[in-house]
């Protein structure tokens, strides 16, 4: 928001340096980006009157004699197409400084002496985007009452100071001069002085000309006034100056009045040419899907049902709250003007302007909110200005539809609530003084008081808002400061963080290298290595299909990394990742997914390269399983492995589910050859663990055990078994014997072939027994072996060889 300091001082009786005002506003809640003087650096630029203007043959130049208030006329050569005798212009005298600190000197052009320069606004550093269209390609023509030889800067308000405010969404009330004036008045304890304009209505009724209706729940209020007999002309210089200093291009007196109201009241307005309407009924409605409208910028807009249109005879003539339509714009032939003031839904306006990439001063204000209490006042003020500046006659009555609440909002709190939050000892008189400065009503006492908040401050609705207002107007610098309490707690890692660090250390200790992959992937890969997939969690506006869905397994992302490296001849890989996977068990469109900490790794290539004395050793299932066994052994978590064919993406004969206390917490296995081919990778083994389940299974206490002084005893046992009996079944049978002195079981041989009955296999185990308190005798060990043999015979049908 660009604020003219000269205009502001007309609304509030202050006379302080702009730098002081900027500091005060910044410390009370509205940040000031800076203060600039549009004419800074310009010098020796005066008003001149072109007395004569002769064309230079065979050139575009003109030889002008200009009166600059001196004894003699000044000869100046000018190439502007709109220079002519009898106009007042801006003249840079020799020695003058114009834009970019360029110095004007006496010179000769085509052999003709030129004692100065007739300037355009561009040459004074004014942006092309705000220069009036009639002067865009030529020099600026000054008002006829400009005095020859006088400084030109005051005529264009280039000596004004422009304060740039950085408006946050909660203080959109400051997107108007009246809002800024209220703020400044509160800061300095002044009152605002808002000019009023008398509106004289004609005998004719506006209702005889037009009618308005609302057919959309996105429009709360719509009002119009009709002004007849207007004369389209350039706006007076003061109005053009105001608009240019605010960053708005002057167009004509009618359009400029609507922009003036936008700046003054913060109320977006639009002016229609009534004679271009196809009917009399104005309807604010939702756009229809596929409907089109050519806006004022000449672009054809494709509309959706999310948009608001202003329609006449069911034909859109404006995009509500964003931009008017080209078919009804004000031009030099316009005679009857229909003024519009409305209250549109901010969310709808934001969606429309964002979708069409059509941000405007109007849409910005509707998005952030407008003052409901001054909508009709702004409309009447605009109509009165058209009477004054365009010679129009205002037809009697406003044509309205809908309604908005304009009464103040009541917010209650107590003095104790305020002082506790601010750490102050304010009295009720202090609070009264603050709200008097703000122009808010106040009733009650220190135990409970109620503040009447005007509609111009729609950001205030709860107790905390009142506390903020008191704090900033009372002065943040006057609030007591206290040091933070020194009592604190020692920082430490959470159990989850500790586990992640342990797992990372153990994984890297086994030779794995950490990678970080995307949490977003394709719908197919998201569930590829998931035994029981849940609903997909999809992004509403993904950048691409490859990054559109949250993953439910990390393996697919690691395999993408494996494929990337294999394609670049890096074939021996051992990669791991610790991250999050996402399960969606609720409504995918409303509920957030459950985040699960996960650990996954992938192995491919060779464990040992071939050399002159060592054969090459390729990774296999047992290398992957060995990493997991090392991990679980160090963490003290007991798990079992169960062969499975449930995971379609893994080899059905080389895959195992990992179980802990009867719950599946992960898997380990070879990537199915077809899946590996699709990824473009060789034989690869993968595993994934649910770290949250591992965390729950961690032993709560670590009990120290002395190293026993007594030797262990080892016995071997060879079993003849059915080929279908698994190693895990044998371990469970041995455990069921409940031999407390059994400390280790190791499988050291598996044989099936010659001398073994068909359909059978031989498995040999080494059993270790140890008593930490005494030596074991042969008789004790024999009893243990007998119990274990019995369990094996009964449970798995083993035959001791």
UniProtKB/TrEMBL annotation:
Domain annotation TRNA-binding: ranges: 39-153
CDD domains assigned to the protein according to its UniProt record, in alphabetical order: PheRS_beta_core, tRNA_bind_bactPheRS
InterPro entries reported in the protein's UniProt record: aa-tRNA-synth_II/BPL/LPL, B3/B4_tRNA-bd, DNA-bd_dom_put_sf, Fdx_antiC-bd, Fdx_antiC-bd_sf, NA-bd_OB-fold, Phe-tRNA-ligase_IIc_bsu, Phe-tRNA-ligase_IIc_bsu_bact
Residues that hold Mg(2+) according to the record: 459, 465, 468-469
Occurrences of domain FDX-ACB (ranges): 708-801
EC number: 6.1.1.20
MF annotations from Gene Ontology: phenylalanine-tRNA ligase activity
Catalytic activity: tRNA(Phe) + L-phenylalanine + ATP = L-phenylalanyl-tRNA(Phe) + AMP + diphosphate + H(+)
Domain of life of the source: Bacteria
HAMAP family (alphabetical): Phe_tRNA_synth_beta1
Family note: Belongs to the phenylalanyl-tRNA synthetase beta subunit family. Type 1 subfamily.
Name assigned to this protein: Phenylalanine--tRNA ligase beta subunit
Organism: Streptococcus caprae
């Amino acid at each position: 928001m660009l604020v003219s300091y000269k205009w502001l001082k007309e609304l509030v009786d202050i006379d302080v340096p702009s730098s002081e005002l900027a500091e005060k506003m910044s410390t009370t809640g509205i940040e000031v980006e800076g203060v600039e003087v549009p004419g800074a650096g310009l010098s020796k630029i005066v008003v001149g009157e072109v007395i004569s203007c002769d064309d230079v043959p065979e050139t575009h130049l003109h030889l002008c004699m200009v009166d600059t208030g001196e004894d003699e006329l000044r000869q100046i050569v000018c190439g502007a197409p709109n220079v002519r005798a009898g106009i007042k212009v801006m003249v840079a005298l020799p020695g003058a400084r114009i834009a970019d600190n360029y110095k004007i000197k006496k010179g000769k052009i085509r052999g003709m002496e030129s004692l100065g320069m007739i300037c355009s606004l561009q040459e004074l550093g004014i942006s092309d985007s705000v220069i009036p269209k009639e002067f865009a390609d030529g020099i600026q023509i000054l008002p006829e009452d400009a005095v020859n030889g006088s400084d030109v800067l005051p005529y264009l308000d280039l000596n004004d100071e422009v304060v740039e405010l950085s408006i946050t969404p909660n203080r959109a009330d400051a997107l108007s001069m009246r809002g800024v004036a209220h703020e400044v008045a509160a800061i300095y304890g002044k009152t605002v002085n808002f000019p009023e304009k008398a509106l004289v209505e004609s005998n004719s009724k506006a209702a005889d000309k037009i009618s308005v209706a609302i057919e959309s729940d996105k429009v709360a209020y719509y009002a119009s006034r009709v002004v007849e007999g207007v004369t389209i002309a350039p706006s007076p210089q003061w109005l053009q100056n105001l608009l240019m200093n605010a960053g708005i291009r002057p167009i004509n007196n009618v359009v400029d009045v609507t922009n003036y109201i936008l700046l003054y009241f913060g109320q977006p307005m639009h002016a229609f040419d009534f004679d271009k309407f196809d009917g009399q009924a104005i309807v604010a409605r939702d756009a229809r899907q596929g409907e089109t409208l050519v806006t004022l910028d000449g672009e054809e807009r494709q509309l959706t049902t999310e948009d608001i249109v202003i329609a006449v005879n069911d034909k859109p003539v404006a995009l509500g709250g964003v931009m008017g339509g080209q078919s009804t714009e004000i031009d030099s032939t316009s005679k009857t003007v229909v003024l519009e003031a409305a209250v549109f839904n901010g969310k709808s306006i934001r969606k429309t302007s964002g979708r069409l990439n059509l941000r405007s001063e109007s849409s910005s204000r509707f998005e952030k909110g407008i003052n409901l209490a001054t909508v009709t006042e702004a409309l009447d003020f605009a109509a009165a200005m058209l009477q004054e500046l365009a010679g129009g006659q205002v037809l009697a009555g406003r044509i309205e539809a809908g309604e908005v609440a304009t009464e103040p909002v009541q917010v209650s709190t107590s003095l104790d609530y305020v002082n506790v939050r601010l750490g102050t000892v304010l009295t009720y008189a202090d609070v009264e003084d603050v709200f008097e400065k703000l122009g808010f009503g106040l009733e009650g006492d220190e135990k409970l008081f109620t503040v009447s908040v005007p509609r111009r401050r729609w950001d205030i609705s709860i107790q905390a808002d009142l506390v903020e207002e008191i704090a900033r107007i009372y002065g943040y610098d006057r609030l007591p400061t206290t040091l933070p309490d020194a009592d604190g707690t020692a920082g430490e890692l959470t159990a989850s963080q500790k586990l992640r660090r342990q797992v990372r250390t153990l994984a890297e200790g086994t030779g794995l290298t950490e990678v970080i992959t995307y949490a977003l992937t394709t719908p197919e890969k998201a569930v590829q290595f998931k035994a029981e997939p849940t609903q997909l969690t999809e992004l509403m506006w993904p950048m691409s299909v490859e990054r559109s869905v949250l993953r439910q397994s990390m393996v697919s992302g690691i395999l993408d990394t494996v494929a990337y490296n294999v394609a670049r001849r890096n074939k021996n890989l051992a990669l791991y990742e610790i991250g999050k996977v996402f399960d969606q068990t609720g409504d995918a469109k409303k509920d957030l997914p459950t985040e699960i900490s996960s650990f996954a790794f992938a192995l491919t290539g060779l464990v040992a390269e071939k050399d002159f004395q060592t054969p090459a050793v390729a990774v296999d299932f047992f290398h992957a399983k060995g990493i997991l066994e090392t991990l679980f052994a160090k963490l003290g978590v007991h798990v079992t492995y169960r062969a499975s064919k449930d995971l379609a993406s893994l080899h059905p004969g080389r895959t195992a589910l990992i179980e802990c206390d009867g719950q599946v917490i992960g898997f380990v296995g070879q990537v199915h050859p077809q899946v590996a081919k699709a990824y473009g990778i060789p034989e690869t083994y993968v595993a994934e663990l649910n770290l949250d389940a591992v965390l729950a299974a961690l032993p709560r206490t670590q009990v120290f055990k002395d190293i026993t002084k007594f030797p262990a005893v080892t016995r071997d046992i060879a079993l003849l078994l059915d080929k279908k009996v698994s190693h895990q079944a044998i371990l469970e049978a041995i455990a069921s014997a409940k031999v407390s002195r059994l400390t280790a079981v190791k499988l050291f041989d598996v044989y099936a072939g010659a001398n073994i009955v068909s359909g059978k296999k031989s498995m040999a185990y080494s059993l270790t027994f140890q008593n930490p308190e005494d030596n074991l005798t042969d008789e004790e060990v024999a009893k243990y072996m007998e119990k274990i043999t019995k369990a094996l015979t009964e449970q798995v049908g083993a035959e001791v060889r």
